[in-house]
Every structure is written in C-alpha cells, then in structure tokens.
Amino acid sequence: MDKVYKAGAKVAQFLQFLGNAVTKRIFRLGFAARFFVAIFLQSGTAFRRFNLTSREVYFSGVLSLIIILVSGLFVGMVLGLQGYDTLQRYGSTEALGILVALSLVRELGPVVAALLFASRAGSAITAEIGLMKATEQLSAMEMMAVNPIARVVAPRFWGGVVSMPLLAALFSAMGVLGGYLVGVKLIGVDEGSFWSQMQASVDFQKDILNGVIKSFVFGIIISWVAVFEGYDADPTAEGVSRATTRTVVTSSLAILAADFILTAFMFTGA
Amino acid sequence: MTRTTIDLWVGFFVALGLAALLFLALKVGNLATSGSGETYAIEAKFDNIGGLKVRAPVKSAGVVVGRVSEIRFDPEAYQAVVKMQLDTRYRFPRDTFATINTSGLLGEQYIGFEPGGDTDMLKSGDVVKKTQSAVVLEKLISQFMFSKAAGDGTGSSKE
Amino acid sequence: MILLQWRASNDLNPRFPPTYPMPQEPLVEIRDLNFSYDTRTILSGINITIPRGKVVAIMGSSGCGKTTTLRLIGGQLKPTSGSVKVAGQVVHELDAKQLYALRRRMGMLFQFGALFTDMSVFDNIAFQMREHTDLPEAMIRDLVLMKLHAVGLRGAHNLMPAELSGGMARRVALARAIALDPMLIMYDEPFAGLDPISLSIVGELIRKLNDALGASSIVVTHDVQESLKIVDYVYFVSEGKIVAEGTAEEIKNSKTSYVHQFVWGEADGPVPFHYPAKKTYGEQLMESGVYRG
C-alpha cells in the first residue's frame, strides 16, 4: 500500500514540475511581449538622441565586422568548391555563379550572419544589461528619474536592428566574392558566364530584397531576445551567465524557425 | 573611445553595408539589366507553355531582349496568353516566330524569337501569330517509345 | 567655503531651486508601513519621521528590510499597506511623471556605488544634468568639477570607474547623488567594505554635504560606530519592526538588550546565533500520516 502512495506522490510531483515549467514559460512570454511593446513606446529617446543608438551600432555592428566578413568569405569559398564538385557531374559548371549567389542571398547570408550576430553581439548585449542590473546601475538610473528602457534598452535594440541587415548584405557580398575567387580564379570556371548567369537568375525583388527583409526580421528577433534576457536576468553572476547562454540558444532557434516561416511565404508559388 | 571616432566607424560601417547591398543589386542581381530603359508590350498565344514563369527572359539570337511580364489563360481559345515587355531598342518583324525553349537539358525555360522577313514591325499591343509550344519531355519520350516500338515491328519485316 | 559653492551652483540652476530647511513639516513621513513579497513579510508597522535638515540612520542586521525601506521611499516598490509621504506627496499614489519629478529631487547612493561602468567619472556625474537639463556643456563642466571638488576627487574626472579604488568609487557615487542638489539624500550601506580612512572620509562627507545643501539624509547602515558619530537620530529595525529609536547619545547608552547587543557587537543575545531549523514539506507530510492510508 505504501508503495502505491509513494508512486502516486512521485507522479503528482512530476505533474507539478511539468505544470510549473509550462506556466513559468507562459509568464515569461507574456512579460517578453509586454517588454517588446514597452521598447517601442520608449523609443523616442533612441531616435531623438541618435548618438546613443549610433554608439550601439558601433558595438554590435562595427565590432562584428571582422567575424562576418571572414565567415562570409569562407562560406562563399566552400560553396564554390562544393558547388563546382557537384555541378561538373552534370557538365553545367557555368551555373556555379547562380548556385553561390542564390544560396547566399536567399538563405545563408541572412541566416548564418544572424547566427553569428546572435552569438557575437546578442550575448554581449545580454551580458552588459544583465551586469548593469546586477550592479544596480539600472536601479540607480531609475532613481535618477531616467527610464532605463528608454536610455539603455531601446538604443541597444535599435542598434541591433540597424546593424543586422547591413551585416547580412556584407556577408552575402563577401560570400559571392569568395565563390568567385575559388570558382573563377582558382578552378577556372569561365568568368563571363559566372557573372552573366548569376545576373540572369538572381532577381532583385524576389531574391535580394527578400533576403534583406529576412535579415531585418532576424535583427528584431535577436535584439529583442538579447535585451529581454539581459533585463530579466537574475542579478547574480550565475544568473547573467545563464541569461547569456539563453540568448544564444533562444535566438538561434527562433531565427531558424522564423526562416522556415518566411521562406514558406516568400519563395513558394510563382 | 571618443564620440567622433565612434561616429566615424559607424559611418564607415553603414557605408560599407550599403555598398554591399548595391553590389548585390547591380553585380549579383538583375537590377541593372531589368527595369531600366523603355519597353513595349506584345503578346503571344501558346498551346502549352510548359514551365515558363513570369520574369523569364525573351531572347533573340541568344541575347536577352525582354522579359515575360504576365501569363494568363484564355478560356475561349483554351490557350495560354503570354505578355512580354521588350526593349524599345529592339524591333522585330510582324511574322516573327516565338518558341518556348529550354536552356540546357534541364535548365529554365525562355521564349526565343526568330525574326521573319516582313517589313512591318511589331508595335505595342500586337500579338505574335506564329508560335511553337514548349517541348514536354514526357510527351517526347512516349512518342519516341511508341515510334521505336512501331519502328521495330515494321523494321524487322523489311529487313 | 563649500556652502558658498553650493549656493552659487543653485543660482546657476534655476530649474532646481535650493530647498532651504523648513523645520515645521518633516520631509519624509512613514506611517504604519507594511510590505511583503507574496507571503513573506518584510516590513510590518513601520513609523519613521525624517525632519528637514537632519541626518537619520536606519540600523539593523543584514536582511532586516532596511534597503526595502529606501526603495519604498524612492517609489521603486509599492507598500502592501500604509503610506510613505515625501515632501507632502504620498509616493505610491503618484503617476509615473510625478514620481520621476519627485525622484529628480532625491539623490541615492547605492550599496556599491552603482557607477555606470561604461562612462568616465565625469560623465557619470554629468549624467543627470545632461538628461534633465538643457545646460550648456561648459556650465555642466563647471558644475561637475565643483561636485567632484566637494568630494576631493577633482583630479580623477578622467578616470573610468574600473580604475577607482572602493573608497574613491563611493565618493564619486556620492558626488553623483548630489549632482542636482537634492532635498533628500539616501545612502544604502555607504560604509560597507571601506578601509578606516575612507570610512571616516565618507562619514564626514555625508554630514557636511547634508548641512551645506540644506538637505535631509537617510543613512541605512549596520556600521554603528561610524554612523553614531554623524547622525542626529537613529531607528533600529529588526525582523521588519522598529525595536528602538532615539538620538545617537540615547542609543549609545541604551539598556535595551537588542540595541546593546548590536551597538557592542556581541555574538549572542536576543538575536540568536542559530538560524531556526525547519522540517521540509515532505517530512511534514510523511509525519502527518496523509500517505499512510
């Protein structure tokens, strides 16, 4: 009899744990949504005093330049090698330009740049805001009658949103250059057909503009997750480190999921 | 880091990003070749357009002279009506022959123009009279198989 | 000397008129204040009065709700019941705009300074002036250097907070707290983690600045010896209740056992050495026999 009750208690405990975990996440989601609205409502300062935002563009955009440029170049070079290897089996190596450009502009540029941005800049934003919270800097700001969402959060959010599309465009451009270097200069694909075929099949509106829209959406997602996790972090060293990890994990998953949804909207149908 | 240094870097970064976007638009994409310049519209009717898509190129002698702007179905003639925007620099005779071709074996489909000998030129809103539909690979294969089977039957009796 | 400087700075800054001591009405009045997080009671039945121009200390052991009291005065928390009145306004009834207007007239020194780590010492002190006033940069510069001079760190205005020692950081934070010449200055553990020299410098500054500005100060601390030198009145808080109050002299000579233990730092007394041990919820359940059938 005792055993049955113990088992029952265990099941009850498990259900309690499950329910608790679910409700906690729903609470957080609600808070995150409220926070998102609050950022927009408090964005006046970030635009009026644009040097605040421009500073954050420096920290999230300019400081991510190196990693984005180098990764873009290498991804493009790998695409050039792999694409050539596959295409030569069908005797259509001239299509290398199309393959490199389309995969970069549509998918790899926005997505990989966003993943890199999440781990380079997103984590930094979370750690910075989390530490400001842990050291009572946000509290101090509030006591000085300055709204920390307007002064600290919104500029960082918009800095990320501005940086992301530019970084994705740079990533794609570097990738195309990398594909060109490997395909044309190294392997010897015809230069003329490389560019002309690329230009003939990459559409400005359908491919490039959609890629920019994607990276813009990713920028909003990453910046939102990053500032929220920082603002919501437990004000301890451990809490900040966990929030930083969560930023990278959550925004990466959200990017991939959003990418699927956006692709489904953008590239299906005629 | 002083404010002016940051501003300098941010300006540099934004300019670089916009330059990359411009590179993508002009060098990688087709913004330079499409949209620019005057065009005029003509139509052509096909029995079957195969896999032709809007924005597919219109080529003559292998040169892109225009693009497909609209594809619709004519419910009276049971035909596909393809509207094309041609570059005003290029003029074609009225008896031009429009075919739907495939670049390579499995490549994308485009419309090919073979100019005739008429002295009158196509004007905006004209309809191309002489067309040839897309070659449907499955049809071709089944035709080939049938003729092969039929040919085998007759061929053996002849020899 | 310092007094003259403050007056001068106030005249330059007409949006923030100096608050001269007005002894008739106390600046801060806390009445029957209760506060609890969910079910955990932090404060119950607190009554505190801060007269204008005085330095009042709130003392008690760690975790007894002193910092919570400051946050309630600053309007960062809302009381469960009771009220906090600052300059005649009930803090928790103000809307966001009024609350921010009130906070502009308060200065607060946080436990470890809470200096903005991404700004230099100069920018830290200039922060509020730039956020809240349209003063020209040249005037802000003069004002900032004046405040830094008052805490003896005029030469350090170029340093970053990471380059300061603990005592210097506390003094910079003090200069920041008085940047807009507040009517009320709150100190959250101003003496924590300071060496004896910095300790007496900070203590002296708290007294001097208060008198020079004509402000009122609340010092939340558990450093008895240092604060008794500078304060006018002391409240003792233990487990969310006020257990004793009086002037510095009265407290020193108090016969109350709790105060005696606290002032003289005795290990055992009314505050027990052992944390009360509780049985876990599971143990209670098993003992209650619910699961025994």
Structure characterization notes:
The complex is a heterotrimer of chains A (270), B (159) and C (293). Chain A has 270 residues and is mostly helical. Chain A contains ten helices and no strands. Chain A has helices spanning 2-41, 44-48, 50-60, 65-87, 96-134, 137-143, 148-187, 191-201, 204-232, 237-266. Chain B starts with a helix and ends with a helix. Chain C is α/β, with parallel strands linked by helices and 293 residues long. Chain C has one domain: Rossmann fold, CATH 3.40.50. Chain C has helices at 2-12, 66-73, 96-103, 121-132, 137-150, 166-177, 196-213, 224-230, 248-252, 257-264, 281-288; strands at 28-37, 40-50, 55-59, 81-86, 89-90, 106-109, 184-188, 216-221, 233-238, 241-247. In chain C, the strands form two sheets. Chain C has a six-stranded mixed β-sheet with strand order 6-7-8-3-9-10, sandwiched between helices. A four-stranded antiparallel β-sheet of chain C has the order 2-1-4-5, with helices on one face. The longest helix of chain C has 18 residues, at 196-213. The termini of chain C are far apart. Chains in contact: A-B, A-C. The interface between A and B is medium-sized, with 35 and 33 residues.
| Biggest protein-protein contact in the assembly | A-B, 35 and 33 residues
- Assembly of the depicted chains: heterotrimer
Strand count, sense and barrel status of the largest sheet of chain B are: 8 strands, mixed
Average pLDDT value of chain A?
Answer: 91
* Largest sheet report of chain A: none
Number of strands of chain B: 8
Structural class of chain B: alpha/beta
What is the C-alpha radius of gyration of chain A, as a whole number of Å?
23 Å
Shape of chain A: globular
Helix run count of chain B:
2
Q: Compute the separation of the termini of chain B in Å.
A: 93 Å
Please mark out the parts of chain B with pLDDT under 50 across 5 or more consecutive residues, or reply none.
Answer: 155-159
How do the SSEs of chain B run, as a string of H and E? HEEEEEEEEH
- State the total count of DSSP E strands of chain A: 0
**Poorly predicted regions of chain A:** none
Secondary structure: helix percent of chain A: over 70%
